[in-house]
């Protein structure tokens, strides 16, 4: 993954958010089948998400996206960049 285009200090990986934090998707850096699956679930640039919680051992994370809850592995969330709002 190449982070050269991610220069803003306010932009972090989705996997770094804590429970209750809200963010706006800036970039999905995943590739192939994973990228397709993530975008089909509504994780696209400009979409707002909120961390609702985490599974008992911290993975996966539970996100609120467009009125529904989505479980996403932290390894998948690491390739999604967000701006905290």
UniProtKB/TrEMBL annotation:
MF-aspect GO terms: transition metal ion binding
Iron-sulfur recorded as keyword: no
Residues in Ferrous iron transporter FeoA-like domain copies: 12-84
InterPro entries xrefs: Fe-transptr_FeoA-like, FeoA, FeoA_core_dom, Transcriptional_repressor_C
Gene3D superfamilies assigned to the protein according to its UniProt record, in alphabetical order: 2.30.30.90
Pfam family, one: FeoA
Keyword Iron: yes
PANTHER family referenced in this protein's UniProt entry, alphabetically: FE(2+) TRANSPORT PROTEIN A
Name the UniProt record assigns to this protein: FeoA family protein
Species: Pseudobacteroides cellulosolvens ATCC 35603 = DSM 2933
